[in-house]
Amino acid sequence: xxxxxxxxxxxxxxxxxxxxxxxxxxxxxxxxxxxxxxxxxxxxxxxxxxxxxxxxxxxxxxxxxxxxxxxxxxxxxxxxxxxxxxxxxxxxxxxxxxxxxxxxxxxxxxxxxxxxxxxxxxxxxxxxxxxxxxxxxxxxxxxxxxxxxxxxxxxxxxxxxxxxxxxxxxxxxxxxxxxxxxxxxxxxx
Length: 189
Known about the structure:
single chain; elongated; 5-stranded mixed sheet; 189 residues; alpha+beta
């Protein structure tokens, strides 16, 4: 046999080894993909909360029982096909009282679209930058919260505050959307 014959046999053996290696690698990749697909199809689905405990489903919030129908608030703004949010430049409450009157309102324009939650925040020097004085449950469109209980009474004075409004889209799986922080002056008399 001549040298070219030996080179051809060596090249053929090398090509067979490379093909065998590639075939083995390809089979391994396919097996791994099948295992991932099987595990993904049989992944444990978290148990959904009982809808009787959470009438709006999925967001861990319930409709606030303090929401009541009343005349609409002033200063209502809305964006085309967006959420309508009412706001006030100031809120006046009595000094050293925890049970106070306010008007947190979810405008009727949000009907069948958005439920809102409200949080009254007092600016301070904490790491978070504010203290939460009140948090509501979900407020249905056209409903007001007019009586709230603060986490503590405040001394007389004027305080910088924010009403943090979190809309929840009631279509598309009741998901939360962009929120709004409305600066307000909290007047305590």
